[in-house]
Amino acid sequence: QVSLVESGGGLVQAGDSLRLSCAASGGTVNSWTMGWFRQAPGKEREFVAAIDWDGGITDYAHSVKGRFTISRDNAKNGTVYLQMMSLKPEDTGIYYCAADTYGVGAPVAAYWYEYWGQGTQVTVSS
What we know:
Structural class: mainly beta
Strand content: over 45%
Mean pLDDT: 96
Distance between the termini: 40 Å
Number of strands: 11
Number of helices: 0
Shape: globular
């Protein structure tokens, strides 16, 4: 059974940094594309970043490009990280880790991702 568990969220001030982690298990995680999505209160879930199976391809939402970095450690069963810097209040939301078992590229559309974590809350105060 596939399990994705996010951690690292919290309450920070604008300009601060946070690093989210996603620990995956239950499959050949090292061969999967992994993504981060977020959902702000009253808004739809949106793409944040994605990374292909070996880290050779990454993609970012325009709103986070240059501030967020996605990475993975396949020596740790494909644990995925999202380093977030220069956080803004509009980055507030629940951040979800997702897995695309097809493993090709770094798709931005949520429908490519079959498995999802429960989410971790990130709150950025102004």
